[in-house]
Amino acid sequence: MMVAVIGLGTxxxxxxxxxxxxxxxxxxxxxxxxxxxKIKERVTHAVCLDVTDExxxxxxxxxxxxxxxxxxxxxxxxxxxxxxxxxxxxxxxxVARATSILHQHVLKEIGASQIIKVEEDMGEIIASQIIAPxxxxxxxxxAGYSIVELKLGKKFxxxxxxxxxxxxxxxxxxxxxxxxIPYITEDGKSxxxxxxxxxxxxMDIIEADDVVxxxxxxxxxxxxxxxxxxx
Length: 231
What we know:
Rossmann fold; five-stranded antiparallel β-sheet; Alpha-Beta Plaits; 9 helices; elongated; six-stranded parallel β-sheet
């Protein structure tokens, strides 16, 4: 996958490097030579140009990218111009950062495929970490539904999946278990390896260090989080 990230401030720079680390070909773009220089060794290609300049964008074959991320947060006008230019040049999917409700509305009107509200999203993440500190990862895949990775702790330690009554009590489905398996290395040292069971059986046992992957609604997860918080 080829991704262009436009705007290399804190949010954009982190996005570009993370995408590259996950295997994407990343073109990082900013008008600041310092920001481009800072990131050039950590992405596929970094270039200094004005993203409101259509000719300049054409020069880097921007229309060939699969996704463009407009991460500009300090200049709303440039953000809007960048999204409009990308759509004009035929970029099929444009993900844009919005810094206000009005900004979000304009981005949607000019064709942004997906809008990221960084400040709001961070607020939700922080709130989730406070309410449910046992949650390791959370992925929203539909309105009101999530895939959650968490440790169930003492309340479920030693129970089989059947005994956990996860489906009956919380209407949540366990879809995978990640276990730490101890072993001895070639030089005789103790170590652990991670094994993922993506087809858990009813009699599989939940251990204290297991990471359990669950699927279900936000309301049902909240019931589980409340019970885990009482332990």
